[in-house]
Task: inverse folding
């Protein structure tokens, strides 16, 4: 398992799972605070990864468009024609 997979999926899953462990293991009123903190942290890490991947996808599309324009300037037609 790679480092990237660990950061993307394992860390958020562990945080969310730890939140539910705290919810069911702690008997005090603080359990709801612990649950909200851990589940919120896990969801935040997961959302941050999704947003970063979405932003990186836009960079790839711009690079593809630039390569297509260079091909057009050299050959006089789009690459997929």
Result:
């Amino acid at each position: 398992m790679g480092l990237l997979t660990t950061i993307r999926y394992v860390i958020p899953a562990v945080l969310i799972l730890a939140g539910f462990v705290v919810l069911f293991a702690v008997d005090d009123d603080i359990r709801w605070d612990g649950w909200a903190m851990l589940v919120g942290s896990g969801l935040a890490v997961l959302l941050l990864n999704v947003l970063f991947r979405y932003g990186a996808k836009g960079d790839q599309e711009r690079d593809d468009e630039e390569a297509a324009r260079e091909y057009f300037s050299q050959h006089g037609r789009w690459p997929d024609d």
User: Anything to note?
Assistant: The chain is about 85% helix and 0% strand. The first helix runs from residue 3 to 25.
